[in-house]
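Supplementary Note 2. Why include the ligand at all?

Several targets in our set were suspected to adopt different conformations when bound, so apo predictions alone were not considered sufficient. For every target with a known small-molecule partner we therefore ran a joint prediction. The input for adenosine-5'-triphosphate is given below.
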Amino acid sequence: MSNIIEIQNLMKVYDNNYTALDKVNLSIKKGEIIALLGPNGAGKTSLISNVCGISSITSGNVFVEGYNVEKEYRKTRDLIGLVPQELSLEPFEKVWASVKFSRQLFGKKRNDNYLENLLKKLSLWDKKNQIIKSLSGGMKRRVLIAKALSHEPKILFLDEPTAGVDVELRKDMWSIIKELKNDGVTIILTTHYIEEAEMIADRIAVINNGKILLVDKKDNLISKMSKKTLTIYTKQILKSIPHSLKKFNLRIFKNEKKLEYDYTASGNKTGITTLLSKIKSSGIELIDVQTRQSTLEEIFVEIVNND
Ligand SMILES: Nc1ncnc2c1ncn2[C@@H]1O[C@H](COP(=O)(O)OP(=O)(O)OP(=O)(O)O)[C@@H](O)[C@H]1O
Ligand SMILES: [Mg+2]
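The joint prediction is reproduced in C-alpha cell form.
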C-alpha cells in the first residue's frame, strides 16, 4: 500500500504560544482506517485542521497524494472530506439542499445520482425533504457525513464521529465506515471510545501533548503490549505461597480460592507449564484455570501514563 498522506515534522504553535503539535511525523496508507487516540487536548483536532488546510501550519510539511497542502490547497482540499467534531449545520435547511450545497462549494459538476445513492447508503433518503432541525442527533451526524462525502473525496476525516451517540447508532456508524473503506476511501478518525478503534481500525496512532507516541497495526499493538493474567482456581484458600512457587510472583487472595499469575503475551516462554506442574507437586489442588488479556484501553492508559 502506498501512502496517501505524508506528515513531516509538523509543528503547530497557536497565537498564545501554545505548542499543540510538536514535530509530528505520520504516514497514512491508501485505503486504511487509522484511529487517532489521545486524551482531551492531545492535538487530534489540531492535526486534522492542519492536514485539511483549515488552520495554518507553523512549520513542517503535509502532502496529500503528493500535493503540498499549503501550496496546492485547492487540489488537496478537493481530495478530502471532513466531518468536524462540532455539529455545524444550518437548522432550517433541508437535508437534500444541504448536501447538494456542499457539493457545489467544491465546484463539482451536478450529480444527483451520486447524492441519491449517498443518502440511501446513509439511510437518509426518506429524510431528504426534512429540515435538519427536525432530525435526531444521530441523523444529524449522518448528514454531516453525507456533506463531507458530497464531493466524492478519497480521504475522509471523522473527528469523533460517535461522541454522544448511543450504542446502536455507533454500531451503524461503524458499518458505514467499513463500507466506505470497501469503496476505497481512506479514513482517519479520532475517538475516545477505545472499543471503537478496536472494532474498526487497521492501525492506531497514539498522540499525547502534541507528540505521536506510537503508531502500529492494531493487532500488533494488542499482541505486543498486552499482558495476560492466568487465574488459577484452587480447592482451598491459600494462606501463603509455597517456597517452590515464590519466583512466579503469584497473587493470593484473602477470601477467594484463587491465585493470579501475570505474563506477557508476546514471549514464547510464558512459564505456565512449569508453574502448573510446580503447583501440582506442591500439593495445591487445582479446580480450574482461566486467562484474560489486557484490553486496548488498558494498553492505551499505560502508554499515555508512561509519557
Ligand atoms: N485556537 C487555539 N488557540 C490556542 N490554543 C488552542 C487553539 N485550538 C486548540 N488549542 C489548544 O491546543 C491543544 C490541542 O487541542 P486540540 O483541539 O487539537 O485537542 P484534541 O486532541 O482534539 O482534544 P479533544 O479530545 O478534547 O477534542 C489544547 O490544549 C487546546 O487548548
Ligand atoms: Mg478534538
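The chain has two domains: 3-223, 226-306. Residues 226-306 form a domain with the Alpha-Beta Plaits fold (CATH 3.30.70). Comparable summaries for the other entries are listed in the accompanying table.
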